[in-house]
Design a protein that fits this description.
The protein is mainly α and 441 residues long.
Length: 441
């Protein structure tokens, strides 16, 4: 099987460079700022802004594999193509691809619950049944927009990206100025900070940047993909690190670490009130709603196409369940159902942790596969690939260590789920790897 499978019915050239950047930043900013800032601060303490910087550096190394592969073979469902090129159409490629798809579904539920949390914040509601109900509602909204077509998604992504990036930048500048450019303080109540915790926090920072894979998975539909996929990825990462760093410093200037951790699911709204007053609080809530809604929208778009690609590549089974229409319509439904289920049964912290485990395992398999089988064919640097692999491994070990102390059950859930994915794919495909005739060593 080749990378072209599944692309024959894609809408080529339907997503512009700016539309792709809008989708990438839509996923990253939606998850990174509003869903993860507090959780990162809980692990990294007063150095949580630095965690975002390290996350961006490691993500840039990781992006190298995806950019080199996408330059050579741009494809819708691009990560599945990368893994199949590296390992052949066997269980390793299929399982890693499925882990990526599941981590994207997890991101949808993460950002959807963040949307619900911010919507309810003005009413002083922080839990209860309204959180999952609103989370499922925004996922269904994303489904309706997605079935309207790619051009609607691209246009809406651009509009929402401009609104939220401009608004968040304004928030960051004014809040940082109001807070006196000071670093966040930690009171005596904050305990347990360690180097391991800081390194573990980088796992969540990486998760905040992983939206660049949305671009990779839509490679076959971006205009002039051989040039624009790589450009879009780097532009999106650059925009996001500037926004993340600005906002992290702004939040730290207005709240102590205790206050950030206490309000970790809505820390930006809390930081806005000292700087802007109550009007600023509501302004930030509106920004959060726009950012998280666009994040869900972009993620649903990408993961449904990746599942369709996996189906066409015979990596996962497919059932119509009585539904009519093309496979992509079915995978949209599957995506929405899975994300809604997670949004109902898991809280933000556990959703983020599960997503980090899935993504880092998949990312390491991508780097190893490209290094072992494809680096000469695509002209990739072995040193950069090994650095990316090593960085992921260090962060994964630190994150697992911290979670074993604080929430061992989520580690158990992750191990069971990852093992089940690989076992299922090994049973379904009956072989781990299949040599590729067009591969290179």
């Amino acid at each position: 099987m080749t990378h072209s499978h599944g692309d024959e019915d894609s809408n080529k050239d339907s997503i512009s460079l700016f539309g792709a950047v809008g989708m990438g930043t839509g996923v990253m900013i939606g998850a990174g700022i509003f869903a993860l800032t507090g959780q990162i601060a809980q692990l990294a303490g007063p150095y949580f802004a630095l965690s975002f910087v390290l996350g961006a550096i490691i993500t840039s190394f990781s992006a190298y594999s995806y950019i080199k592969m996408s330059d050579a073979w741009p494809s819708s469902g691009g990560i599945a193509m990368i893994l199949q090129k590296a390992y052949g159409p066997g269980a390793i490629a299929a399982a890693a691809s499925l882990l990526m798809a599941l981590s994207m579904v997890i991101s949808e539920s993460l950002v959807a619950r963040t949307f619900a949390t911010y919507v309810l914040r003005p009413f002083d509601i922080s839990g209860g049944p309204l959180v999952p109900i609103l989370a499922v509602g925004v996922i269904l909204f994303a489904f309706l927009v997605n079935i309207s077509g790619n051009r609607s998604i691209g246009l809406l992504s651009i509009i929402m990206a401009v609104i939220k990036i401009g608004g968040i930048a304004l928030f960051g500048i004014v809040a940082l100025w109001s807070g006196g450019f000071s670093l966040p303080e930690a009171s005596d109540n904050v305990s347990g900070f360690s180097t391991t915790g800081f390194v573990a926090s980088v796992a969540l920072s990486i998760l905040a940047f992983k939206g660049f894979t949305t671009i990779t998975n839509s490679g076959g539909e971006i205009t002039d993909p051989h040039r624009n996929v790589g450009r879009t990825i780097m532009i999106s990462i650059a925009i996001c690190i500037m926004i993340y760093l600005l906002v992290a410093l702004a939040v730290g200037s207005n709240l102590t670490i205790d206050e950030i951790v206490e309000s970790k699911d809505y820390s930006l709204a809390e930081a806005a009130e000292p700087a802007f007053g109550r009007a600023g609080f509501y302004f930030t809530v509106v920004l959060a709603v726009v950012a998280t809604a666009s994040g869900v929208l972009a993620s649903v778009f990408a993961v449904s196409r990746m599942l369709a690609m996996l189906t066409k590549m015979k990596m996962i089974p497919h059932s119509h369940f009585g539904m009519s229409g093309p496979i992509r319509s079915h995978t949209l439904v599957y995506t929405v159902v899975l994300a809604s289920t997670l949004a109902v049964f898991f809280d933000l912290s556990r959703i983020a942790s599960l997503g980090a485990f899935f993504y880092l395992i998949m990312d390491m398999l991508v780097h190893w596969g490209v290094f072992r089988h494809l680096r000469k064919e695509i002209g990739a640097s072995g040193a950069i690939l090994l650095c990316a692999l090593g960085f992921d491994a260090i962060v994964l070990v630190a994150f697992a260590t911290m979670k074993l102390r604080s929430d061992p059950m989520i580690v158990l859930y992750a191990v069971i789920a990852i093992t089940a994915v690989f076992a299922y794919e090994r049973t379904y495909l009956s072989h781990w790897t299949v040599p590729q005739d067009d591969g290179g060593d």
